[in-house]
Structure formats: structure tokens, C-alpha cells
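As agreed, record minuted below.
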Amino acid sequence: MLNIELYKNSWLFESKKLNPWDLVFLEWEIDENLYIVLSWEIIIEKYTSNEKNEKKELAILKQNDFFWEWWLSNNFPKEVSARAKNETHLIYINWKKWIQTFMIKYPYECLNLLIYIINLTNKRLLDANKQITDNYEIVKIITEIKNINDKNIFETIEKIKTISWFNHILFFETNQVISEYTTLKYDTKEPWKIKDITILVQDINNINLLKENIEIEEETFIQKLNIWELELWFMIFWKKEKFTYEDKKLIISITNNLTGLLKQKQILKEELNKKYMKEKNL
């Protein structure tokens, strides 16, 4: 366990309080500090364009998380930016300047900190590897689909459930004409069975309204699947444990890939409708 109180009271560590969206550091800066989050959250993000006008959120760090541990082994410029998500309290140590003093003055605590860093870094690497592997498998499944139809889409949802270890997935299609209604199209509790259950729901973000109509467990995560600004589908994922930040990142990635498939299905459907209307001179 980390002795946070010792770090807070030691002159080797400095304290910093941030307001929402205050920067800790920018991408490509040199920074010799090792940071520990005392309260609230830090967003780690990276530019996704050379013009630096678009960013991607990579992680959210919470209490007792550390960051910029790379400084322990090298002094490369940062490849990410860090900013406060809310009113955040950090402590930090200039590792290059004070590492020897820290080891001499607090050898046991220094060892504990290094072990903690190694263990948490390994966990982050394992989580990242699982996400990359799951994404690869799901993208491979989607790209191999030749005939885009409901059956193949629902088979894909079954495979997503197996690969990602979610316990239960519901797939809904919104009603573009009557916004008060949505249709449950597939439920992994009844595999390989195409459903068509219309449900009255005023707000798909209100899980309690859905619970009145279908059986949904407590730990749920709702993800919309949009084409342009149209909310055409949404999915509800369920697992026994609370959803981690890594779980949510995986869901967003999965649904982005699935949305591409559904978009193709929607285009094919519109083309068939146009062909039908043309043949009937409508």
C-alpha cells in the first residue's frame, strides 16, 4: 500500500490544486515530475491530427493513480497531454532531482512506490492488450461479413458478447416516425432468435423506464449508435461488476465498428426502397 500521508507531509513532494480543464502538461513538453492523484480526476489525451485541432481521450486517472512514470527510465518528451477533469488535487515529486534523497530518507516507502508503479503499469499494459486484441477480433468478424442482413448483424453481436466477456447485450432500433417508441431487436439471453418487441420509452438514457418493460440487471451501460445526427440504434451492455473506464472504451470502439456495418445496411435498404418506388412509378 502507498503511504499517501507520508508523501503529502514530506518536503520532497509538492502539492498542486487544479480547476476544471487546467493543464498539468502539454504533449511534447519535458517534465521531470512523477504525479499522484489525491482527489477527483485527470484526463489523459492525445492530438489525433497534425493541425492539433482534434484530441482523443486515452484515459481517466482517479485517486491514487500516478502518471508520467516514464520519467523514471527516460527523459523523452511527453506523447500525451494531461488536464484536470474537475477540481483536482495532485502531489508530485521531481524524480530526477530527489530520487536519491527519497531512497536514502525513505527506503521502504520508495520500494513500495516502485512496486506499486510496476504492478499498475503491468495492469495498464494487460488492459491495453486486451482492448487491442478484442478490437482486432471484432473488426475481423465485421469485415468478413459478405451479406449485410439482420441475421448476420445479430450473429456479430453474439460474437461480440463472447469476445468481450460481457454477460448480456440488448440491441434496439429507434422509431424515426414515433419517437416515443423503440424496438428491441435482439437479446443475447435468447441467442439466435430475432425479436421484434415494441417498447414505449420517453428517454433511452432512463434505464428505469426500460426496466418497467423488460428484464434488465443493475450494472448497465447504454451506448447510442448514430449515423450523422440520427440516433437510429442503441445497445445496452450488462456485466456483474461495475463498468470500468476500459470497459467503456471497448464498448465505444465496438459500437463504432458496428455502426459502420449498420450504416451500410441502411444505405442498401434505402437503395432498395428507391428501386421499388421507381418500378412502381411512385
